[in-house]
Amino acid sequence: MSSRREFIEKLSITAISVPLLYSPAQLFAASSEPYEGPILKVAIMGLGSYGTRVAEAMQSCTRAKLVGVISGTPSKIKKWQSKYDIPEKNCYNYDNFDAIKNNPDIDAVYIITPNGLHKDQTIRVAKAGKHVISEKPMGINAQEGQEMVDVCKAANVKLLIGYRMHFEPKTVAVIQMRKDGDFGQPKFFQGQSGFTIGDPTQWRLNKELSGGGAMMDIGIYSINGARYMLGEEPVWVTAQETKTDPIKFKEGIDETIQFQMGFPSGAVANCLSTYSMNNLDRFYMTGSKGFVEMQPSTGYGPIEGRTHKGPLTQPHITHQTLQMDGMAALIFDGVQPIVPVDGEEGVKDMKIIDAIFKAAKTGQKVTL
Ligand code: NAD
Prior knowledge:
Elements: H1 3-17, H2 24-30, E1 40-45, H3 49-58, E2 64-70, H4 74-84, E3 91-92, E4 108-111, H5 118-127, E5 131-134, H6 142-154, E6 159-161, H7 169-179, E7 186-194, H8 207-210, H9 214-230, E8 236-242, E9 256-262, E10 268-274, E11 280-287, E12 291-294, E13 305-307, E14 310-311, H10 319-333, H11 343-362, E15 366-367
Parallel strand pairs: 1-2, 1-4, 2-3, 4-5, 5-6, 7-10
Antiparallel strand pairs: 7-11, 8-9, 8-15, 9-10, 11-12, 12-13, 13-14
Helix pairs in contact: 3-10, 5-6, 6-11
The chain binds nicotinamide-adenine-dinucleotide.
Nicotinamide-adenine-dinucleotide is lined by residues 46-51, 72, 112-115, 117, 135-136, 162, 164, 203, 209, 217.
C-alpha cells in the first residue's frame, strides 16, 4: 500500500472515531483520486486586501472555485478577469449585483467589504437566492447579525461567516483535545489580539464602516477563541477601555479594551484587544490536567504552539483554502466543522461585543 494511501486511510479511520479532527478538505487535499463531486462556484464581493488573499488561496481548492467578482472599480475587475479567467457575464458592480439572481453559474457570494456594509449586502445576496459567506465581524451589532440570519433563513440560503480558524489543523486538534478531556476541566483562557494600525483615514477607523475599532476587527478573535478553547458560552463580561490617541481613535472607535468573561463552569477569560500594540496574537488555556499555548494563534500562519504533552505538529495549510473547501463540504454535504461557522455562531460573538462595549462604557458587569 502506498504511503499516501496509508495516510488517507489513517485519516479516514481518525475521521470515523474522531469525526472532525481533520477537516474533510484535508482528506480531499491528500487524495490521489481526482475529486468528482460538486464545485462551489463563488463570486467575491470586495476586491481589497483580504479578498485578494482569499482569491489566491482558492486557486488551490478542490471543491470551491472563484468564478465571479463584484466591485466598484472597473480596473480591478479587468485585472481579476485576466488573472482568474473570469467571464464578463460573471462581473458585477455594487449597483447591479442583484442581477446575480439570474446567473446559474454562481452558487455563493463571499462578502469581503467593510463591516458596516455586510448586513445590507448579505440581504441583497440572499434575496437573489445565493448562499452568503460574510467576513467577520458579520455586522456591526447583534441586531444586524440576527437580521442577516433571519433573512437568509427565509430565503432558504446558507449564511456562513469567515471563521477560518475553525478549519485550521492545530486549532482543530486543540479543540479536539479539549473535547477529549486532555486538559481536564478548562479553567482559564487568556487571549491577546492586536496590532498597531496605520493610515488614520482608512475605513477601519470610520465608525459607520467599521462599527468600532480594534474589538470588531481583531478582538473578535479572542472572543471567538475563548469560546472554542473553553467550550462554553460566557454568562457575564466586564471591560475597561484605554485611549491614548483620541484624535486617531475617535468616539466609538476603541483603541484598547481589556475584557473579562465568566463561564457557567466557573472558568474565566482575560483578554486584550488593541490597535496600538504590535505582535499580540497569543492564546493560553489551562485546565485541571494540562495547558495549551499558541503564538501566533490566529494569524495567517503557520500557527505555532504546544501543550503539556508537547509541541503541536499538525501541518500548515493555507487557511483560506481549507476554509473554502470546508464550506463547500458543509453546503453540499452538510459536513460540519468542529466549531460551527454559521450565522448563529456569528451572532454569539456579536452579542458578546455589544456587551463588552456596554461594560466598557458603564463600568458595570454585564450579564449575557
Ligand atoms: P480592504 O480595505 O483591503 O478591502 C475592502 C474592499 O471593500 C476594497 O476593495 C474596497 O474597495 C471595498 N469597498 C466597497 N465599498 C466600500 C466603501 N464604501 N468603503 C470602503 N471600501 C469599500 O479591507 P480588508 O482588509 O480586505 O477587509 C474586508 C473585510 O474582511 C472586513 O470585514 C475584515 O474584517 C475582513 N477581514 C477578515 C480577515 C480574516 O482573516 N478572516 C482578514 C482581513 C480582513
